[in-house]
Amino acid sequence: MYTRLHTHTMHPQIWAIGQPANKIKRPRSVGAPWIIKGAPHRITTRIVTLPFQAEKMKDADVSKQIQQMIRFIRQEAEEKANEISVAAEEEFNIEKLQLLEAEKRKIRQEYERKAKQIDVRRKIEYSMQLNASRIKVLQAQDEVVSSMKDAAKKGLLRISSDKKVYKKLIKEIIIQGLLRMRESSLLLRCRETDRKLVESLLDEAKKEYSEKANVESPKVTIDDRVYLPPHPKNSVVDSHEPFCSGGVVLASEDGKIVLESTLDARLDVIFRQKLPEIRKRLLD
Questions:
Q1: Mind listing the pLDDT tens digit for each residue in 84-138?
Q2: What backbone torsions phi and psi does residue 91 show, to the nearest 5 degrees?
Q3: Using CB atoms within 10 A of its CB, is residue 90 exposed (0-12), middle (13-18) or buried (19+)?
Q4: Has this prediction a pTM greater than 0.85?
Q5: Are the beta carbons of 24 and 33 closer than 8 angstroms?
Q6: Where are any strands of DSSP class E within 123-236?
């Protein structure tokens, strides 16, 4: 084992074999041999003396090694910096993609929400328009039905003006009423203008009833206190005043059973029965 001793820069470096440095005696002059203490005799052949030129060469090697280390450290630092930069760039790109995807997701969700709102609003508007159209159709149907009913009422007014037709109609109405009531005593009401016509037809109508029903002729009293409303003024059917186009009303003696056989009541009954058929034809 060699023990290395560093001396002053003006002196050489010493290597001793197998001895520690505290046993090496420094020479008194430059170039003199170095002595190892404790040796049985002076051993100078084991001491290697390096001149000052070798010292300078070693300093150059050390400087070169230091420069190499500096370059190595710098290169390592640059590589590390590059790695950090690349890692930071990758992390930045990942974070940027995540933020971008999050914003895209928010935009898609907002778009879907607004699309649903628009779809719901469109459906509501369509439903409202459809309902409005249906209401208009129903209103148009009602107007047509009302106009048809008004036309029928005007036709009824013309019937009473034809005395021959109206006389036959009143007789049939009285017979039908007696058949439906089947009462032994009845009260009959009519328009005041029709009183004489009813009186002229009443006996004949009772006779036909008794023959058809095979019963005795009933007692029919014409009400001379209460009359049906008169013919509408100026033949205006949409007047707010009550009117009657013709016909009679039969009631039991106690007044519990009443049968309206006026032309207007019959028209209302027929219209209610035929209204679905009328609406269907209007739709077709």
A1: 989 888 888 999 899 999 999 999 999 999 999 999 999 999 999 999 998 998 8
A2: -65, -40
A3: exposed
A4: no
A5: no
A6: 185-190, 219-222
